[in-house]
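Much of our argument rests on the idea that a fold can be written as discrete symbols. Part of our work consisted of pairing the sequence of a single chain with a tokenised description of its backbone. The amino acid sequence and the backbone structure tokens for this protein are reproduced below.
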Amino acid sequence: MPLFVAIAIAIFQGSNTQEFYMIDKNGEKTNNGLLIASNVLIADSGTVCDDEFDSNSAKAICKFMGYNGKAASYRSASFYSWDINNNYAIVLDDVSCPQPDFSYCTYTAVYHNCQRSENIHLE
């Protein structure tokens, strides 16, 4: 009898267990740069994919990190030639925020269908 393994993909409502920060091209924490998410289920720290990501998502995450979020902007990694993009797994995909508040955001954690060029950079 064949053994089947099921992989469940769940959409999670935002909570306070996640942490976000940004790093520059050298991996140093900064106030703008490559967006890193940590404490996402069983995954280590990693990047956020641009699928479904929009200005509400940028504002929500900036606000979650303690910035006012009013002038948050974002770009995909395709605009940057940073080698650091390849040093992290992609841990969040399909981040969708109907309001600029992370408690209203949904996302797919750990599983993704993204390329490194889709990593989010916040400014």
Summary: The chain is about 10% helix and 30% strand. Residues 25 and 91 are 19 Å apart (CA to CA). The radius of gyration is 14 Å. The helical segments are 55-64.
